[in-house]
Write a structure and sequence with these properties.
The chain is α/β, with parallel strands linked by helices and about 180 residues long. The protein has seven helices and seven strands; from the N terminus they run E-H-E-H-E-H-H-E-E-H-H-E-H-E. Strands 1-7-2-6-3-5-4 form a seven-stranded mixed sheet.
Length: about 180
């Protein structure tokens, strides 16, 4: 029996976008990132930021749109379950999402564009660590991985909580949006 190459690396691949070069990634971020050594077989990519206001969610959206335009069946998943905003950003009436699915409801997947679907964060939860580490979330992501070529996970920023680091365990690669003026 031949060894199969894993879909994900043991350690995620990281790529950092600084805010001053962000505009260059708007048109085809997936192509630019792939050409910069992202493994072409990455299925799940987290988009993280070092603070708020760095256009992380917009970066995640453009990355997902770029993959969809290349013909990949793509899912953009909101994983900010403390303060979900996708339903507002995309003017969706239904605020149910990932947290509600883990609580036993059907997973509401919204078609945003051809080849690109959305999953909102859902009802805010206070038990975030329990939710993020739950068997149900792992099973959900595993099932979605079988349905989509690319899953882009829009995480909370790293400045407030460590939720993004937990979510990064599900990913094969990550894009970090960082303020180029921040000295840390």
């Amino acid at each position: 029996m031949q060894n199969q190459q894993p879909t994900c690396f043991k350690k995620p691949s990281f790529h950092i976008l600084t805010s001053h070069v962000w505009d260059h990634y708007l048109e085809k971020p997936a192509l630019l990132l792939d050409q910069n050594t992202l493994h072409p077989d990455l299925k799940i990519i987290t988009v993280l930021s070092t603070g708020s206001g760095l256009m992380k969610s917009l970066t995640a959206l453009h990355l997902a749109e770029s993959y969809a335009q290349q013909g990949y069946k793509t899912l953009l998943m909101e994983a900010n379950v403390r303060n979900p905003v996708f339903h507002t950003l995309f003017t969706l009436e239904d605020t149910k999402g990932l947290t509600d699915h883990i609580s036993g409801n059907p997973l509401p997947i919204t078609r945003y564009k051809p080849g690109l679907d959305l999953v909102c964060g859902g009802t805010p939860t206070l038990n975030v660590a329990t939710f993020l580490l739950s068997r149900e979330l792992k099973q959900c992501i595993h099932a979605l991985k079988g349905r989509y070529d690319k899953i882009i996970i829009d995480t909370p920023d790293l400045s407030d909580h460590k939720d993004a680091l937990i979510l990064n365990d599900y990913a094969c690669g990550s894009v970090i949006v960082h303020d180029s003026h921040d000295v840390s």
